[in-house]
Automatic annotation (TrEMBL), chains A, B, C, D:
This is TetR/AcrR family transcriptional regulator. Residues 41-60 bind DNA. Keywords: DNA-binding, Transcription, Transcription regulation. It comes from Mesorhizobium abyssinicae. It comes from the Bacteria. Coiled coil: none annotated.
Amino acid sequence: MGEAAGTGRKSIGARRNPDSADAILDAAEAVLAEAGYSGFSIEAVARRARAGKPTIYRWWPSKAALLLDVYQRQKRVDVPDTGNLEDDLVGFLKNLFAHWRLTASGNVFRSLIAEAQSDSHAAAALAGYATGRRAHTGQVIERAKARGEVAPEVDAGIVADLIASYAWRHLLTNRLDEDQATLRTAVRYVISGISARRR
Amino acid sequence: MGEAAGTGRKSIGARRNPDSADAILDAAEAVLAEAGYSGFSIEAVARRARAGKPTIYRWWPSKAALLLDVYQRQKRVDVPDTGNLEDDLVGFLKNLFAHWRLTASGNVFRSLIAEAQSDSHAAAALAGYATGRRAHTGQVIERAKARGEVAPEVDAGIVADLIASYAWRHLLTNRLDEDQATLRTAVRYVISGISARRR
Amino acid sequence: MGEAAGTGRKSIGARRNPDSADAILDAAEAVLAEAGYSGFSIEAVARRARAGKPTIYRWWPSKAALLLDVYQRQKRVDVPDTGNLEDDLVGFLKNLFAHWRLTASGNVFRSLIAEAQSDSHAAAALAGYATGRRAHTGQVIERAKARGEVAPEVDAGIVADLIASYAWRHLLTNRLDEDQATLRTAVRYVISGISARRR
Amino acid sequence: MGEAAGTGRKSIGARRNPDSADAILDAAEAVLAEAGYSGFSIEAVARRARAGKPTIYRWWPSKAALLLDVYQRQKRVDVPDTGNLEDDLVGFLKNLFAHWRLTASGNVFRSLIAEAQSDSHAAAALAGYATGRRAHTGQVIERAKARGEVAPEVDAGIVADLIASYAWRHLLTNRLDEDQATLRTAVRYVISGISARRR
DNA sequence: AAATAATCGAGACGGTACGTCGGGTCTTGTC
DNA sequence: GACAAGACCCGACGTACCGTCTCGATTATTT
């Protein structure tokens, strides 16, 4: 996972040292994985990265900014393209939950959301990120629209919102091990509705 | 709102003083309202309530327990019963958002969720609370089922989950001012689906 | 010298814990003795005393205040009373230099003077202390006046100032090992003058 | 006072740029004058001089060395030659105090003494400087000896020491505004003594 | 004329210390 | 035995400087 080079990093002149940046992000991830959000402090990250606190503060103005960078370094979970909307969305949720569960990402993102509740910078950063992701997820809906699977007047953003909300709440309440049938049911409700008239 | 009695509370003998408990809960709510989650500390609550820190720790083992108590003291938002599921759910969301937006409740609940990300006791307490609320919301669905509005095989818990998730995410991302049309659209998707075949 | 009790001090209620105060003063003295003024930091004192920094700041608003307390805890060097002014003053300087040289006091006082050059609180504290000591030394002169050794119109404060100044400069320039003959000569100049007419 | 050239100094090739040296010494003096010793940092000097820190460290190995250079750039206070020892010495003290009080020199020298208490290089530099000055002041005594005013066996160094010590202590305890009568009295004690027999 | 070498400003680096805040524990004296 | 009060140790906060390093640019000296 990298750890800091044992022999000590130095400045490489009047510009950012990418080794330090990497070491700090690695350390942040490791601290979060080992000590959780409650043990996640700039102090601890600096210690682990063998970096000075000012170096961290220089590049990441807040804990949230650091968390966001850590999160964004992770591999993205992308939405499958099976030609069928339900499968796409179920697959996406399945992949996302697995990613969150099996890597540090889940904890990172949970922490980021928590941080955003007390830090407006974090809130802004998270909002920006969420918007981007919503557009991304929205594309699946648009694809389905193009295939004629989804009614053309449907607002893809709202649908993406419903799906993302469902994912967030599972993350925040430790339900990432939800069984696939339940996920599929939830997705199906959104796609087909629950109305008696229409089923 | 209560504030602490200016002249100082004393012990009332070898049992819990309910005035102190009230003063502490009042203070907690006030601190949260004025300083937000980031300014919410046991220290600040004690100061404001003119209470000793040990008095707080004696009765509430963690910040989360205190938050939960504060939240549960609040008036509940209940689901309207209009005879129409869509109106019921939209009304519920509307009321809930207004409640969260206009009282301290929103901040309290946000804080509770945030706290639950670093404190397993908080997480457990929140999970318990959420389960209770899910059942509560689920009843609306069951009523609609009874009216024949909703297909009988529908899992009310999952629907309640979708609705609650949507609400949570709006709370956590500062979107409690969502316009009503959007809420109605989201609810309609869950009820009627987005599939082209069925609209 | 005390060191901190290994098992940890606790609060003894809502009042100052004298054990902590002692441990902190002991630690301050030890740090100064071992690391000198440049290594003398509140941080280091806290570490050594196993005390929290806030505990130190609670009772000593500045490094200078702590230094002053440490210095005043030391045994005082008093002026001998031999019945002869020259012997009294030479004896005083000899004792003072030995005291400064052989105990931590010299370093403490040096540090205090240094600190006073950048901290006005320290300067005020030092000025107050110096005034007290000047009166003290002045008494030797007054005794000599009473014996008829010293002219009655002589300003004892100014004489004390000359002597103290001489001592300070030796302290500040690492000349505490000045040989006794030189001290005696200096004292003799002040008592008998250097004028050709009068010797 | 110079300030740094607004448009930026550059290297003038493979040798020391005297403009930079001047700018740094000017800046050091200005910082000391405006912020005092506590605000005197290499960082602040570099900022003010628009110089790189390594440029400072290249030429002055320590804060003390820089201070010493700043001090030595100042105009010297010389001892008057009135043909009368008392007037010479009183005049010297008067001039010295005025110089210290009215220019940055007083602060510079105070700082230098303070610095010498924690930095052995500074101590050595200061000792060297003091020795030089002592010889200088000693010449006044020697002149008086030559005139027959002072007994031939008197050690001019010790007398100079007494006078310089008196000056130092006034500097270090913020008493540069001492009235002239007091100075004269102190000088007179050293010259004529305080003994009853001889007055 | 080209290559070398030392200097310059700039500013990042790993660190240490600053002075403050809050956490959770403890004890005292009053009710 | 509960209460207000507040001290205790601890650890994190975000900032200021420390002294070192490396850069790219500049320019006098050497080839």
